[in-house]
Amino acid sequence: MERLRGELSEFVADVFASLPRRDQRRWGGCYLRGLMLDGRRKSIQPMAERLPDGNMQALQQFVNQSPWDPLPVRRRIAERLSRAIRPEVWVIDDVSFPKCGTASVGVARQYCGALGKRANCQVAVSVHAATDTGSCPLNWQLYLPREWTDEPDRCHRAGVPDEAVAHQEKWRLALGMLDTLAGWELKAPVVVADAGYGISTPFRSGLEERGLSYVLALTGKEVAHAEQAEPHRPAYGGLGPPTLPRYRTPPRAVSALAAETGAGQFTEVTWRQGSKGPMTSRFTVLTIRPAGKRSLVAAQSAGGGRNRWDGVLPARTLLVEWPHGQDTPTGYWISNLPATTPVADLVRWAKMRWRIEHDYRELKHGLGLDHFEGRTWRGWHHHVTLVTAAQAFLTLRRLDPKAHTPA
Q1: Strands (E) located in 33-185
Q2: DSSP at 128
Q3: b (16+ CB within 10 A) / e for 135-151
Q4: Hey, is 118 helix, strand or coil?
Q5: Is 275 exposed, middle or buried (0-12, 13-18, 19+ CB in 10 A)?
Q6: How far is CA 272 from CA 133, 239, 279, 377, in A?
Q7: Which residues of the chain fall below pLDDT 70?
Q8: 398 Cβ partners below 8 Å, 6+ apart?
Q9: DSSP H or E segment with residue 336
Q10: Rounded to whole angstroms, what are the CA distances from 393 to 10, 246, 364?
Q11: pLDDT value of position 203
Q12: Where is the signal peptide (predicted)?
């Protein structure tokens, strides 16, 4: 760390340039060094004890009370890392932090991915820039369950700003962060997310309204019509409003539509080199017409309203995986990219979420993302911004030893 201190100082001066005071930038650099030093715990007290210039009270004040804005810091990190990584996708994901007690901002009994069950935890939504060779978070937002937003006084005690007190689903937080990144003049190449986001019709519609391409995981239970299905408008009986057009057959699960294709229509695709050799499986691309209730409402709205809609559900591309040795397909992804998109590209983008698991391992186990012991909204967002900065510095060093030099 001493050998890299000069390079780290240049990095800190650049990404923390928005901090108004010199002492804030100093403690920002000190906190980053504490995160990157060896040590089991990366909370403030043990870091201060390990650092030769550590001061627990000063670091505590810098992270938990100092009013610096983390967004300009994240913006500078996002600009530098986007230029260095040249991402193929932006991955939207959420991460959980198991917690004891009820005072930490956003903590509630909810599904905790870190434990694989419902537990007391915080949950945050994140956007990452990624290729197979590198990735880095671009933005974060802490999720507030309804039990928090239904108690404004509790939110205010934890320092939640007024504009964040209203409850927002995770997919809305994700769209909001994409809007923030667009305001920073950054645009997603292709948006990738797991089925928790892929099954959300409003989320997919929000991406399309923003002109963004996506490849989103889907469950096999989602229903759709085959591409060739056409709606039928019954003859008008002369009484009441005209009968609306409808499909003659009910929609079917995408797992059933995919299985009917037959294993012979699937092509073997290798998407990357794994630690044990090439990552290979069989895939095919279908065109479907998503037909759930929310898909129907979205199509009617886009068609000018229920009574003016022509009844045609929009077509979307479905990527299906059917691994060797399996009796049925096992993986599904929905995309608004044309079905003529090379299957190898769709597969590579769909599978690139693995990089985010690498991010989380490094952020949590190496840099103490989940070691923060404060309780406030400000402190949490300051901490994750500083951890992101530490990972960004290390990522730039890995990609190119000279990449620490700002543009």
Answers
A1: 89-98, 108-112, 117-130, 135-142
A2: E
A3: bbbbbbbbbbeeebbee
A4: strand
A5: exposed
A6: 10, 61, 5, 39
A7: 1-3, 401-407
A8: 134
A9: none
A10: 10, 56, 16
A11: 97
A12: none
One-letter amino acid of 145: P
Rg (the chain; Cα; Å)? 24
- pLDDT tens profile 103-152: 899 999 999 988 999 999 999 999 999 998 889 999 999 999 999 999 99
Confidence (pLDDT) at 3: 67
Report the Cα 244 to chain-centroid distance in Å. 38
Q: Give the pLDDT confidence of 179-201 residue by residue, as tens digits.
A: 999 999 999 999 999 999 999 99
Q: What is the structure's pLDDT at 189?
A: 96
3-state DSSP assignment of residue 327: coil
CA distance 334 to 328: 18
Q: Which two tokens stand for residue 249?
A: 């057959």
pLDDT at 402: 60
Please list, in sequence order, all residues whose beta carbon lies within 8 angstroms of the beta carbon of residue 90, skipping any fewer than 6 positions away: 127, 128, 129, 130, 138, 178, 188, 189, 190, 191, 192
Angle at 205 between CA 200 and CA 206, to 5 degrees: 95
Helix axes 5-15, 22-36, angle to 10 degrees: 130
Count the Cβ atoms, other than its own, within 10 Å of residue 312: 14
pLDDT recorded at residue 288 = 97
Q: State the alpha helices, DSSP H only, in 184-292.
A: 195-198, 201-209, 254-261
* d(C-alpha 348, C-alpha 405), whole Å: 31
For residue 150, what pLDDT is reported?
Answer: 95
pLDDT at 222: 97
pLDDT at 238: 72
Answer yes or no: are the C-beta atoms of 318 and 333 closer than 8 Å.
Answer: yes
Is 374 within 8 Å of 63 (Cβ atoms)? yes
327-355 confidence digits (pLDDT tens): 999 999 999 999 999 999 999 999 999 88
